[in-house]
Automatic annotation (TrEMBL):
GO CC annotation: cytosol
Native organism taxonomy: Bacteria, Bacillati, Actinomycetota, Actinomycetes, Micromonosporales
InterPro entries reported for this sequence: Aromatic_CoA_ox/epox (IPR052703), Ferritin-like (IPR012347), Ferritin-like_SF (IPR009078), PaaA (IPR011881), PaaA_PaaC (IPR007814)
Gene Ontology molecular functions: phenylacetyl-CoA 1,2-epoxidase activity
Name listed for the protein in its UniProt record: Phenylacetate-CoA oxygenase subunit PaaA
NCBIfam families found in the cross-reference section: PA_CoA_Oxy1
Annotated GO biological process: phenylacetate catabolic process
UniProt superkingdom: Bacteria
Annotated source species: Spirilliplanes yamanashiensis
Length: 332
């Protein structure tokens, strides 16, 4: 695990406090952005900024919730009680991340119920990575190491995002993601240093998850539709390709310690660039999976719909309780 990332999260957190204390009164949106201050829910903001954030935060929230499925699939089959407890805690964290993020989106004037509907009827997307199946226990390790690892690399810069509620949610999320990455890495480390069959299982998981993880950073910069404006608004701080490079550079040394081989014959240190050259993921495959044609798209959304329907009584009970409580408060 890269401790530098956690240090960056802590620096962002302390800068956030400093910025809040120094907040100028009556500044315009552009002044706030230029001064690296945070936009808060009551501030005036361009409609396109608000819409961009809703789309991004909602997609992020949906990814956390759908992302519980591939690993949830292994909770009942974890190889020991300890592994089961750790995995259960990790999957619950993801539910929590979804909730912080829906709450952050709600500060922009949308309702969580509407966002959930948009996910369930396909108007909003979630990360394409969760449309791949978890075939073996080693996949749970590979997801923690690579998928949560890629998520951290993506999310650490979001701790400095210009929208206050999103930035603050990201600080907490990143701290938890770092635990997720470590637990995945530890699972793979144990397997990779176990029997020959366990080592092979770990290698097979890395072989299958490597390129989909690289694709998590999105299309290459040349084809990325939302990037430029998001950069100007300081929602996004680094381009897709910059983040992808950062992720590859981080993984190479970690794979060496695992004793596993990254499945890329083109992977080599480039002295001039001070970074690794690597083979890009198959972006045509990424687009296919985003459009709904990945190995598990249908299964994931069907499962989510069923879970949502089965949870209707919980929502009704919570609403009835809230009504009763409100009436009791008024009466008192
Ligand atoms: Fe998460
Ligand atoms: Fe995670």
């Amino acid at each position: 695990m890269d401790d530098a990332l956690l240090t960056q999260v802590e620096a962002a957190e302390s800068d956030l406090r400093t910025a809040a204390a120094a907040r100028l009164a009556a500044s315009t949106f552009d002044e706030v952005i230029a001064a690296d201050q945070k936009i808060e829910p009551r501030d005036a903001m361009p409609e396109a900024y608000r819409k961009t954030l809703i789309r991004q935060i909602a997609q992020h929230a949906h990814s956390e919730i759908i992302g519980m499925q591939p690993e949830g699939n292994w909770i009942s089959r974890a190889p020991s009680l300890k592994r089961k407890a750790i995995l259960l805690a990790k999957v619950q964290d993801e539910a929590g991340h979804g909730l912080y993020l829906y709450a952050a989106a709600e500060t922009l004037g949308v309702s969580r119920a509407d966002l959930v509907d948009a996910l369930l009827d396909g108007r909003q997307k979630y990360s394409s990575i969760f449309n791949y199946p978890t075939l073996t226990w080693a996949d749970v390790g590979a997801i923690g190491w690579l998928v949560d690892g890629a998520a951290i690399v993506n999310q650490v810069p979001l701790c400095r995002c210009s929208y206050g509620p999103y930035a603050r949610a990201m600080i907490r999320v990143c701290k938890e993601e770092s635990f997720h990455q470590r637990q995945g890495y530890e699972i793979l480390h144990t397997l990779a240093h176990g029997t020959e069959a366990q080592h092979a299982m770990a290698q097979d998981a890395l072989d299958r998850w490597w390129y989909p993880s690289l694709a998590m950073f999105g299309p290459p910069d040349a084809d990325s539709t939302h990037s430029e404006r998001s950069m100007a608004w300081k929602i996004k701080r680094f381009s897709n390709d910059e983040l992808r490079q950062r992720f590859v550079d981080m993984c190479v040394g970690q794979a060496e310690i695992l004793g596993l081989r990254i499945p890329d014959d083109g992977l080599r240190w480039n002295e001039q660039r001070g970074a690794y050259d690597f083979t890009a993921p198959d972006y045509a495959e990424l687009m296919r999976v985003i459009k709904g044609d990945g190995p598990c798209n249908r299964q994931r959304i069907e499962h989510r719909r069923r879970a949502h329907a089965e949870g209707a009584w919980v929502r009704e009970a919570a609403e009835a309780y809230a009504r009763k409580h409100a009436t009791a408060t008024v009466a008192a």
